[in-house]
Sequence to fold (503 residues):
Amino acid sequence: MKDPIMNFDLKSLDLAQAASHKGDALLVLVPEGFKPGQDELGRLIAAALKSGDLQTKTGKLLMGYLASGVTSPRLVLAGCDEGTPRQVRQAVAAAVGALRSSPCRKLVLCLSALAHDDAVRMAVQAAADASYVYTTTKSKPEPRTLEQVTIGVADAALSRPGFERAVAAVRGVEYAKEWANRPGNHATPTMLADAARRLAKAPHLQCTVMGPKQVAKLGMGAFLAVAQGSHEELRFIELRYNGGAKGEAPTVLIGKGISFDSGGISIKPAAEMDEMKFDMCGAASVLGVFRALAELKPAINVVGLIASCENLPDGKAVKPGDVVTSMNGQTIEILNTDAEGRLVLCDALTYAERLKPKAVVDIATLTGACVIALGGVRSGMFSSHDDLAAALLAAGESAQDLCWRMPLDDEYGEGLKTHFADVANVGGRPGGAITAAKFLQRFADKFPWAHLDIAGTAWKGGAAKGATGRPVPLLLDFLLAGAGGGAATSVAKKAPARARRKA
Ligand code: BES
Ligand code: MN
Ligand code: ZN
Fold:
Protein backbone atom coordinates (compact mmCIF):
# COMPACT_ATOMS: atom_id res chain seq x y z
CA MET A 1 0.00 0.00 0.00
CA LYS A 2 1.32 3.44 -0.89
CA ASP A 3 1.55 5.85 1.98
CA PRO A 4 -2.10 6.70 2.23
CA ILE A 5 -2.24 8.95 5.22
CA MET A 6 -1.25 12.44 5.98
CA ASN A 7 1.35 13.57 8.43
CA PHE A 8 0.41 14.95 11.78
CA ASP A 9 2.46 16.97 14.17
CA LEU A 10 1.81 18.47 17.56
CA LYS A 11 2.97 21.87 18.81
CA SER A 12 2.37 24.13 21.78
CA LEU A 13 0.54 27.05 20.17
CA ASP A 14 -1.79 29.58 21.70
CA LEU A 15 -4.24 31.37 19.44
CA ALA A 16 -1.86 34.17 18.49
CA GLN A 17 0.94 31.71 17.72
CA ALA A 18 -1.42 29.57 15.63
CA ALA A 19 -2.42 32.68 13.70
CA SER A 20 1.18 33.34 12.72
CA HIS A 21 1.95 29.68 11.93
CA LYS A 22 2.24 29.16 8.19
CA GLY A 23 -0.20 26.80 6.51
CA ASP A 24 -2.79 26.78 3.73
CA ALA A 25 -5.59 27.05 6.24
CA LEU A 26 -6.04 27.79 9.91
CA LEU A 27 -8.89 26.03 11.71
CA VAL A 28 -9.80 27.29 15.16
CA LEU A 29 -12.26 25.46 17.39
CA VAL A 30 -14.38 27.92 19.31
CA PRO A 31 -16.22 26.56 22.36
CA GLU A 32 -18.90 28.30 24.41
CA GLY A 33 -17.53 31.01 26.70
CA PHE A 34 -14.42 31.35 24.54
CA LYS A 35 -12.11 34.04 25.98
CA PRO A 36 -10.20 35.54 23.08
CA GLY A 37 -7.00 37.45 23.79
CA GLN A 38 -6.09 40.93 22.59
CA ASP A 39 -4.19 39.71 19.53
CA GLU A 40 -5.63 40.45 16.08
CA LEU A 41 -7.29 37.06 15.58
CA GLY A 42 -8.66 37.17 19.13
CA ARG A 43 -10.31 40.48 18.41
CA LEU A 44 -11.67 39.17 15.10
CA ILE A 45 -13.24 36.16 16.87
CA ALA A 46 -14.70 38.36 19.61
CA ALA A 47 -16.29 40.63 17.00
CA ALA A 48 -17.68 37.70 14.99
CA LEU A 49 -19.19 36.19 18.14
CA LYS A 50 -20.70 39.53 19.12
CA SER A 51 -22.26 40.11 15.69
CA GLY A 52 -23.66 36.57 15.58
CA ASP A 53 -21.77 35.70 12.37
CA LEU A 54 -19.90 33.10 14.40
CA GLN A 55 -21.94 30.74 16.58
CA THR A 56 -20.50 28.25 19.03
CA LYS A 57 -23.06 25.59 18.08
CA THR A 58 -21.34 22.42 16.85
CA GLY A 59 -21.30 22.24 13.07
CA LYS A 60 -21.51 26.02 12.57
CA LEU A 61 -18.65 27.40 10.51
CA LEU A 62 -17.42 30.85 9.58
CA MET A 63 -14.96 30.84 6.71
CA GLY A 64 -12.71 33.70 5.70
CA TYR A 65 -9.93 34.47 3.23
CA LEU A 66 -6.82 36.60 3.79
CA ALA A 67 -7.99 37.62 7.25
CA SER A 68 -5.72 40.23 8.76
CA GLY A 69 -3.38 38.88 11.40
CA VAL A 70 -3.62 35.33 10.04
CA THR A 71 -0.63 34.00 8.10
CA SER A 72 -2.52 31.14 6.41
CA PRO A 73 -4.72 32.39 3.55
CA ARG A 74 -7.81 30.46 4.63
CA LEU A 75 -9.42 30.78 8.02
CA VAL A 76 -12.14 28.50 9.37
CA LEU A 77 -13.77 29.17 12.73
CA ALA A 78 -15.79 26.22 13.97
CA GLY A 79 -18.22 26.18 16.90
CA CYS A 80 -18.03 23.14 19.18
CA ASP A 81 -20.45 23.88 22.11
CA GLU A 82 -18.78 22.66 25.33
CA GLY A 83 -16.04 20.93 23.37
CA THR A 84 -16.91 17.37 24.41
CA PRO A 85 -15.05 14.66 22.47
CA ARG A 86 -18.11 14.08 20.30
CA GLN A 87 -18.52 17.79 19.59
CA VAL A 88 -14.84 18.19 18.74
CA ARG A 89 -15.10 15.32 16.31
CA GLN A 90 -18.20 16.75 14.64
CA ALA A 91 -16.74 20.26 14.44
CA VAL A 92 -13.47 19.07 12.88
CA ALA A 93 -15.36 16.79 10.48
CA ALA A 94 -17.53 19.70 9.32
CA ALA A 95 -14.59 22.09 8.92
CA VAL A 96 -12.26 19.64 7.14
CA GLY A 97 -15.21 18.55 4.99
CA ALA A 98 -15.75 22.20 3.99
CA LEU A 99 -12.07 22.49 3.07
CA ARG A 100 -12.17 19.38 0.87
CA SER A 101 -13.01 21.39 -2.23
CA SER A 102 -10.16 23.87 -1.63
CA PRO A 103 -6.51 23.23 -2.50
CA CYS A 104 -5.54 23.11 1.15
CA ARG A 105 -2.52 20.89 1.74
CA LYS A 106 -1.30 22.13 5.08
CA LEU A 107 -3.76 22.70 7.90
CA VAL A 108 -3.05 24.34 11.24
CA LEU A 109 -5.66 23.17 13.73
CA CYS A 110 -5.86 25.19 16.91
CA LEU A 111 -7.32 23.38 19.92
CA SER A 112 -5.78 25.59 22.58
CA ALA A 113 -9.18 26.77 23.88
CA LEU A 114 -10.17 23.21 24.78
CA ALA A 115 -9.33 21.86 28.19
CA HIS A 116 -10.44 18.32 27.38
CA ASP A 117 -7.61 15.88 26.84
CA ASP A 118 -9.50 13.76 24.33
CA ALA A 119 -9.80 16.73 21.97
CA VAL A 120 -6.51 15.84 20.29
CA ARG A 121 -7.40 12.27 19.43
CA MET A 122 -10.86 13.26 18.23
CA ALA A 123 -9.39 15.99 16.03
CA VAL A 124 -6.78 13.63 14.56
CA GLN A 125 -9.37 10.95 13.81
CA ALA A 126 -11.92 13.36 12.36
CA ALA A 127 -9.39 15.18 10.16
CA ALA A 128 -8.21 11.84 8.75
CA ASP A 129 -11.76 10.58 8.21
CA ALA A 130 -13.00 13.73 6.50
CA SER A 131 -10.09 13.90 4.07
CA TYR A 132 -9.78 10.17 3.25
CA VAL A 133 -10.01 9.13 -0.40
CA TYR A 134 -9.87 5.63 -1.88
CA THR A 135 -7.62 5.45 -4.94
CA THR A 136 -6.29 1.90 -5.36
CA THR A 137 -8.44 0.74 -8.28
CA LYS A 138 -8.74 4.09 -10.09
CA SER A 139 -6.68 4.56 -13.25
CA LYS A 140 -6.27 8.31 -12.66
CA PRO A 141 -6.37 8.65 -8.91
CA GLU A 142 -6.96 12.02 -7.34
CA PRO A 143 -5.18 11.60 -4.05
CA ARG A 144 -6.25 13.41 -0.90
CA THR A 145 -5.32 17.07 -0.94
CA LEU A 146 -4.74 17.40 2.78
CA GLU A 147 -1.18 16.22 3.50
CA GLN A 148 -0.15 17.78 6.74
CA VAL A 149 -2.00 18.71 9.91
CA THR A 150 -0.30 20.64 12.69
CA ILE A 151 -2.29 20.44 15.89
CA GLY A 152 -1.84 23.35 18.23
CA VAL A 153 -2.52 22.72 21.92
CA ALA A 154 -1.81 24.50 25.20
CA ASP A 155 0.90 22.04 26.27
CA ALA A 156 2.30 19.72 23.62
CA ALA A 157 4.37 17.67 26.08
CA LEU A 158 1.27 16.87 28.06
CA SER A 159 -0.77 15.91 24.99
CA ARG A 160 2.02 13.93 23.29
CA PRO A 161 1.17 10.37 24.46
CA GLY A 162 -2.49 10.72 23.49
CA PHE A 163 -1.47 12.29 20.21
CA GLU A 164 0.87 9.43 19.30
CA ARG A 165 -1.80 6.91 20.09
CA ALA A 166 -4.30 8.78 17.95
CA VAL A 167 -1.94 8.89 14.98
CA ALA A 168 -1.29 5.15 15.30
CA ALA A 169 -5.05 4.54 15.52
CA VAL A 170 -5.52 6.54 12.31
CA ARG A 171 -2.92 4.39 10.59
CA GLY A 172 -4.82 1.30 11.71
CA VAL A 173 -8.18 2.72 10.66
CA GLU A 174 -6.87 3.66 7.21
CA TYR A 175 -5.26 0.26 6.74
CA ALA A 176 -8.60 -1.37 7.59
CA LYS A 177 -10.46 0.99 5.23
CA GLU A 178 -8.04 0.25 2.42
CA TRP A 179 -8.49 -3.53 2.57
CA ALA A 180 -12.22 -3.31 3.21
CA ASN A 181 -12.80 -0.94 0.29
CA ARG A 182 -10.89 -3.06 -2.20
CA PRO A 183 -13.18 -5.01 -4.52
CA GLY A 184 -13.51 -8.76 -4.02
CA ASN A 185 -11.14 -9.51 -6.90
CA HIS A 186 -8.53 -7.20 -5.39
CA ALA A 187 -8.83 -8.54 -1.83
CA THR A 188 -8.97 -12.32 -2.11
CA PRO A 189 -8.18 -14.56 0.86
CA THR A 190 -4.69 -15.05 -0.62
CA MET A 191 -4.16 -11.31 -0.91
CA LEU A 192 -5.34 -10.74 2.67
CA ALA A 193 -2.87 -13.37 3.84
CA ASP A 194 -0.08 -11.66 1.91
CA ALA A 195 -1.01 -8.35 3.55
CA ALA A 196 -0.79 -10.00 6.97
CA ARG A 197 2.62 -11.45 6.08
CA ARG A 198 3.87 -8.02 5.05
CA LEU A 199 2.60 -6.49 8.30
CA ALA A 200 4.46 -9.15 10.23
CA LYS A 201 7.82 -7.86 8.98
CA ALA A 202 7.67 -5.29 11.80
CA PRO A 203 9.38 -6.08 15.12
CA HIS A 204 7.42 -8.22 17.64
CA LEU A 205 5.10 -9.49 14.88
CA GLN A 206 4.78 -12.98 13.42
CA CYS A 207 2.42 -14.44 10.89
CA THR A 208 1.52 -17.97 9.84
CA VAL A 209 -0.91 -18.80 7.06
CA MET A 210 -2.73 -22.06 6.49
CA GLY A 211 -4.39 -23.26 3.28
CA PRO A 212 -7.14 -25.83 2.61
CA LYS A 213 -4.97 -28.88 3.35
CA GLN A 214 -3.89 -27.75 6.80
CA VAL A 215 -7.39 -26.51 7.63
CA ALA A 216 -8.80 -29.91 6.64
CA LYS A 217 -6.20 -31.58 8.83
CA LEU A 218 -7.37 -29.47 11.78
CA GLY A 219 -10.91 -30.69 11.13
CA MET A 220 -12.44 -27.31 10.39
CA GLY A 221 -15.39 -28.85 8.57
CA ALA A 222 -17.64 -25.80 8.90
CA PHE A 223 -15.07 -23.38 7.46
CA LEU A 224 -14.28 -25.81 4.62
CA ALA A 225 -17.97 -26.15 3.78
CA VAL A 226 -18.29 -22.41 3.15
CA ALA A 227 -15.16 -22.31 0.99
CA GLN A 228 -15.99 -25.35 -1.15
CA GLY A 229 -18.17 -23.43 -3.64
CA SER A 230 -15.32 -21.15 -4.70
CA HIS A 231 -12.27 -21.51 -6.89
CA GLU A 232 -10.38 -19.10 -4.62
CA GLU A 233 -8.50 -21.01 -1.94
CA LEU A 234 -9.37 -20.31 1.68
CA ARG A 235 -6.80 -18.89 4.07
CA PHE A 236 -6.57 -19.18 7.84
CA ILE A 237 -4.32 -16.39 9.05
CA GLU A 238 -2.67 -16.22 12.44
CA LEU A 239 -0.99 -12.95 13.39
CA ARG A 240 0.90 -12.61 16.65
CA TYR A 241 2.02 -9.49 18.38
CA ASN A 242 4.36 -10.25 21.30
CA GLY A 243 5.07 -7.05 23.18
CA GLY A 244 4.33 -8.47 26.61
CA ALA A 245 6.02 -10.97 28.87
CA LYS A 246 6.73 -14.40 27.41
CA GLY A 247 4.04 -16.81 28.53
CA GLU A 248 1.56 -14.06 29.34
CA ALA A 249 -1.85 -15.14 28.05
CA PRO A 250 -2.78 -13.30 24.86
CA THR A 251 -5.97 -11.50 23.97
CA VAL A 252 -7.29 -13.08 20.78
CA LEU A 253 -9.13 -11.15 18.05
CA ILE A 254 -10.98 -13.18 15.43
CA GLY A 255 -12.04 -11.51 12.17
CA LYS A 256 -14.70 -12.74 9.76
CA GLY A 257 -12.99 -12.58 6.38
CA ILE A 258 -15.57 -13.43 3.74
CA SER A 259 -13.99 -11.63 0.79
CA PHE A 260 -17.29 -11.85 -1.05
CA ASP A 261 -20.63 -13.14 0.23
CA SER A 262 -23.07 -13.97 -2.55
CA GLY A 263 -25.10 -16.05 -0.10
CA GLY A 264 -24.02 -19.26 -1.81
CA ILE A 265 -26.83 -21.58 -2.96
CA SER A 266 -29.18 -19.54 -0.73
CA ILE A 267 -28.24 -16.68 -3.02
CA LYS A 268 -28.85 -13.04 -2.13
CA PRO A 269 -30.90 -10.63 -4.28
CA ALA A 270 -28.90 -8.65 -6.86
CA ALA A 271 -29.58 -5.19 -5.42
CA GLU A 272 -26.61 -4.00 -3.37
CA MET A 273 -24.94 -7.40 -3.58
CA ASP A 274 -21.73 -5.54 -4.45
CA GLU A 275 -21.63 -4.36 -0.82
CA MET A 276 -20.90 -7.93 0.22
CA LYS A 277 -17.27 -7.25 -0.72
CA PHE A 278 -17.34 -5.58 2.72
CA ASP A 279 -18.04 -8.94 4.38
CA MET A 280 -14.37 -9.08 5.36
CA CYS A 281 -14.52 -5.89 7.44
CA GLY A 282 -13.98 -7.91 10.63
CA ALA A 283 -10.77 -9.29 9.13
CA ALA A 284 -9.77 -5.81 7.94
CA SER A 285 -10.23 -4.47 11.47
CA VAL A 286 -7.89 -7.15 12.81
CA LEU A 287 -5.27 -6.17 10.20
CA GLY A 288 -5.78 -2.52 11.15
CA VAL A 289 -5.28 -3.23 14.85
CA PHE A 290 -2.01 -5.04 14.13
CA ARG A 291 -0.89 -2.16 11.92
CA ALA A 292 -1.37 0.16 14.89
CA LEU A 293 0.24 -2.25 17.38
CA ALA A 294 3.33 -2.39 15.17
CA GLU A 295 3.63 1.35 15.59
CA LEU A 296 2.73 1.69 19.27
CA LYS A 297 4.62 -1.36 20.57
CA PRO A 298 2.61 -1.74 23.80
CA ALA A 299 3.62 -4.32 26.41
CA ILE A 300 0.85 -6.82 25.63
CA ASN A 301 0.40 -10.07 23.76
CA VAL A 302 -2.27 -10.25 21.07
CA VAL A 303 -3.15 -12.94 18.56
CA GLY A 304 -5.24 -12.17 15.50
CA LEU A 305 -7.05 -14.98 13.69
CA ILE A 306 -8.65 -14.43 10.31
CA ALA A 307 -10.83 -17.03 8.62
CA SER A 308 -11.06 -15.97 5.00
CA CYS A 309 -12.84 -17.41 1.96
CA GLU A 310 -15.50 -16.59 -0.62
CA ASN A 311 -19.13 -17.71 -0.32
CA LEU A 312 -20.29 -18.61 -3.84
CA PRO A 313 -22.80 -20.97 -5.49
CA ASP A 314 -21.31 -23.76 -7.58
CA GLY A 315 -21.79 -27.42 -8.48
CA LYS A 316 -19.51 -28.22 -5.58
CA ALA A 317 -21.04 -25.71 -3.16
CA VAL A 318 -22.52 -26.76 0.16
CA LYS A 319 -26.33 -27.16 -0.03
CA PRO A 320 -29.17 -26.35 2.36
CA GLY A 321 -29.71 -29.43 4.49
CA ASP A 322 -26.09 -30.57 4.36
CA VAL A 323 -24.62 -31.55 7.71
CA VAL A 324 -20.97 -30.77 8.45
CA THR A 325 -18.71 -31.46 11.43
CA SER A 326 -16.99 -28.53 13.08
CA MET A 327 -13.50 -28.63 14.58
CA ASN A 328 -14.83 -29.28 18.10
CA GLY A 329 -16.91 -32.23 16.90
CA GLN A 330 -20.35 -30.58 16.96
CA THR A 331 -22.37 -31.38 13.86
CA ILE A 332 -24.11 -28.48 12.10
CA GLU A 333 -27.06 -28.60 9.72
CA ILE A 334 -26.59 -25.82 7.17
CA LEU A 335 -30.19 -24.72 6.58
CA ASN A 336 -29.19 -21.48 4.90
CA THR A 337 -25.84 -21.15 3.12
CA ASP A 338 -26.05 -17.37 3.55
CA ALA A 339 -25.50 -17.77 7.29
CA GLU A 340 -21.85 -18.53 6.50
CA GLY A 341 -20.12 -16.12 8.88
CA ARG A 342 -20.93 -18.15 11.96
CA LEU A 343 -19.63 -21.27 10.17
CA VAL A 344 -16.19 -19.86 9.56
CA LEU A 345 -16.08 -18.23 13.00
CA CYS A 346 -17.07 -21.32 14.97
CA ASP A 347 -13.97 -23.19 13.80
CA ALA A 348 -11.77 -20.17 14.49
CA LEU A 349 -13.23 -20.03 18.02
CA THR A 350 -12.38 -23.68 18.59
CA TYR A 351 -8.88 -23.06 17.27
CA ALA A 352 -8.50 -20.17 19.76
CA GLU A 353 -8.73 -22.65 22.67
CA ARG A 354 -5.19 -23.82 22.01
CA LEU A 355 -3.86 -20.28 22.48
CA LYS A 356 -4.98 -20.36 26.16
CA PRO A 357 -6.34 -16.84 25.78
CA LYS A 358 -7.08 -14.24 28.43
CA ALA A 359 -10.11 -13.24 26.34
CA VAL A 360 -11.41 -13.77 22.82
CA VAL A 361 -13.25 -11.10 20.84
CA ASP A 362 -14.67 -11.94 17.43
CA ILE A 363 -15.51 -9.17 14.99
CA ALA A 364 -17.94 -9.86 12.17
CA THR A 365 -20.33 -8.31 9.68
CA LEU A 366 -22.58 -11.10 10.83
CA THR A 367 -26.25 -10.23 10.40
CA GLY A 368 -28.58 -7.91 8.52
CA ALA A 369 -30.72 -8.14 11.66
CA CYS A 370 -28.08 -6.20 13.60
CA VAL A 371 -28.37 -3.38 11.06
CA ILE A 372 -32.12 -3.31 11.73
CA ALA A 373 -31.61 -3.39 15.50
CA LEU A 374 -28.89 -0.75 15.93
CA GLY A 375 -28.41 0.98 12.58
CA GLY A 376 -25.05 2.53 11.84
CA VAL A 377 -24.41 4.20 15.18
CA ARG A 378 -23.46 1.40 17.56
CA SER A 379 -22.01 -2.04 16.90
CA GLY A 380 -23.81 -4.96 18.54
CA MET A 381 -21.82 -6.41 21.43
CA PHE A 382 -22.55 -9.80 22.96
CA SER A 383 -20.67 -11.33 25.85
CA SER A 384 -21.06 -14.05 28.39
CA HIS A 385 -18.59 -12.25 30.63
CA ASP A 386 -19.63 -9.05 32.43
CA ASP A 387 -16.15 -7.61 32.97
CA LEU A 388 -15.21 -8.13 29.34
CA ALA A 389 -18.50 -6.54 28.24
CA ALA A 390 -17.88 -3.55 30.51
CA ALA A 391 -14.34 -3.13 29.16
CA LEU A 392 -15.57 -3.14 25.56
CA LEU A 393 -18.37 -0.69 26.32
CA ALA A 394 -15.90 1.65 28.03
CA ALA A 395 -13.41 1.37 25.16
CA GLY A 396 -16.18 2.24 22.72
CA GLU A 397 -17.07 5.33 24.74
CA SER A 398 -13.52 6.59 25.14
CA ALA A 399 -12.71 6.03 21.46
CA GLN A 400 -16.13 7.35 20.39
CA ASP A 401 -16.52 4.11 18.44
CA LEU A 402 -19.66 2.99 20.20
CA CYS A 403 -21.16 -0.42 20.87
CA TRP A 404 -24.22 -1.64 22.74
CA ARG A 405 -24.61 -4.81 24.78
CA MET A 406 -27.22 -7.23 23.51
CA PRO A 407 -28.79 -10.15 25.39
CA LEU A 408 -27.83 -13.84 25.28
CA ASP A 409 -30.72 -15.49 27.13
CA ASP A 410 -30.77 -19.21 26.42
CA GLU A 411 -34.32 -18.97 25.09
CA TYR A 412 -32.90 -17.18 22.05
CA GLY A 413 -31.03 -20.36 21.17
CA GLU A 414 -34.16 -22.55 20.99
CA GLY A 415 -34.65 -21.93 17.27
CA LEU A 416 -31.29 -23.52 16.47
CA LYS A 417 -32.56 -27.00 17.39
CA THR A 418 -32.84 -29.57 14.61
CA HIS A 419 -33.55 -33.30 14.25
CA PHE A 420 -30.59 -33.87 11.97
CA ALA A 421 -27.54 -32.43 13.73
CA ASP A 422 -26.39 -31.02 17.07
CA VAL A 423 -27.33 -27.54 15.94
CA ALA A 424 -28.70 -25.71 12.89
CA ASN A 425 -26.95 -22.65 11.48
CA VAL A 426 -30.10 -20.50 11.50
CA GLY A 427 -33.03 -19.85 13.82
CA GLY A 428 -36.01 -17.83 12.66
CA ARG A 429 -35.96 -14.18 11.58
CA PRO A 430 -36.89 -12.69 14.97
CA GLY A 431 -33.85 -11.62 16.97
CA GLY A 432 -31.56 -12.70 14.14
CA ALA A 433 -28.46 -10.97 15.50
CA ILE A 434 -28.96 -12.71 18.84
CA THR A 435 -29.55 -16.21 17.45
CA ALA A 436 -26.35 -15.81 15.45
CA ALA A 437 -24.51 -14.90 18.66
CA LYS A 438 -26.11 -17.88 20.46
CA PHE A 439 -24.72 -20.12 17.73
CA LEU A 440 -21.21 -18.73 18.27
CA GLN A 441 -21.52 -19.00 22.04
CA ARG A 442 -21.70 -22.81 21.73
CA PHE A 443 -18.08 -22.70 20.55
CA ALA A 444 -16.84 -20.17 23.10
CA ASP A 445 -17.29 -21.82 26.49
CA LYS A 446 -13.59 -22.29 27.28
CA PHE A 447 -12.61 -18.61 27.69
CA PRO A 448 -14.11 -15.17 28.35
CA TRP A 449 -15.70 -14.30 25.03
CA ALA A 450 -17.31 -11.36 23.30
CA HIS A 451 -18.72 -10.93 19.82
CA LEU A 452 -19.00 -7.64 17.94
CA ASP A 453 -21.58 -7.59 15.14
CA ILE A 454 -20.36 -4.72 12.95
CA ALA A 455 -22.79 -5.28 10.06
CA GLY A 456 -24.24 -1.77 10.53
CA THR A 457 -21.09 0.14 11.45
CA ALA A 458 -18.24 -1.22 9.31
CA TRP A 459 -19.24 0.55 6.12
CA LYS A 460 -21.59 3.16 4.75
CA GLY A 461 -23.81 2.59 1.74
CA GLY A 462 -25.35 5.07 -0.68
CA ALA A 463 -23.53 8.16 -1.95
CA ALA A 464 -20.89 7.98 0.77
CA LYS A 465 -20.29 4.28 0.13
CA GLY A 466 -17.11 3.11 1.81
CA ALA A 467 -15.55 1.42 4.80
CA THR A 468 -15.42 3.27 8.12
CA GLY A 469 -12.45 1.48 9.67
CA ARG A 470 -14.61 0.64 12.69
CA PRO A 471 -14.14 -0.90 15.20
CA VAL A 472 -10.35 -0.40 15.08
CA PRO A 473 -10.46 2.55 17.53
CA LEU A 474 -12.60 0.58 19.99
CA LEU A 475 -10.37 -2.50 19.82
CA LEU A 476 -7.20 -0.47 20.29
CA ASP A 477 -8.58 1.28 23.35
CA PHE A 478 -9.69 -2.07 24.71
CA LEU A 479 -6.26 -3.65 24.20
CA LEU A 480 -4.28 -0.67 25.50
CA ALA A 481 -6.47 -0.31 28.58
CA GLY A 482 -5.31 -3.81 29.49
CA ALA A 483 -1.69 -2.87 28.86
CA GLY A 484 -1.31 -1.25 32.28
CA GLY A 485 1.60 1.10 32.92
CA GLY A 486 4.19 -1.13 31.29
CA ALA A 487 3.59 -0.10 27.72
CA ALA A 488 5.88 2.58 26.38
CA THR A 489 2.97 4.44 24.91
CA SER A 490 0.13 3.35 27.12
CA VAL A 491 -1.60 6.37 28.50
CA ALA A 492 -3.46 6.49 31.80
CA LYS A 493 -6.57 7.75 30.08
CA LYS A 494 -8.82 8.20 33.03
CA ALA A 495 -6.40 10.18 35.20
CA PRO A 496 -6.84 13.94 35.08
CA ALA A 497 -4.16 15.71 33.09
CA ARG A 498 -2.47 17.18 36.12
CA ALA A 499 -2.21 13.89 38.00
CA ARG A 500 -0.67 12.34 34.93
CA ARG A 501 2.02 14.95 34.61
CA LYS A 502 3.28 14.10 38.10
CA ALA A 503 3.19 10.37 37.46
N1 BES B 1 -22.79 -10.91 5.56
C1 BES B 1 -24.15 -11.15 5.86
C2 BES B 1 -24.72 -10.14 6.86
C3 BES B 1 -25.04 -8.79 6.32
C4 BES B 1 -26.13 -8.60 5.49
C5 BES B 1 -24.31 -7.70 6.71
C6 BES B 1 -26.44 -7.34 5.05
C7 BES B 1 -24.62 -6.44 6.28
C8 BES B 1 -25.70 -6.25 5.43
C9 BES B 1 -24.33 -12.54 6.46
O1 BES B 1 -23.46 -13.50 5.99
C10 BES B 1 -25.71 -12.98 6.11
O2 BES B 1 -25.98 -13.14 4.96
N2 BES B 1 -26.54 -13.15 7.12
C11 BES B 1 -27.89 -13.52 6.92
C12 BES B 1 -28.27 -14.53 7.97
C13 BES B 1 -29.59 -15.18 7.73
C14 BES B 1 -29.52 -16.09 6.53
C15 BES B 1 -29.96 -15.96 8.96
C16 BES B 1 -28.76 -12.26 7.02
O3 BES B 1 -28.46 -11.42 7.85
O4 BES B 1 -29.68 -12.14 6.25
MN1 MN C 1 -24.17 -14.43 4.22
ZN1 ZN D 1 -21.66 -12.86 5.32
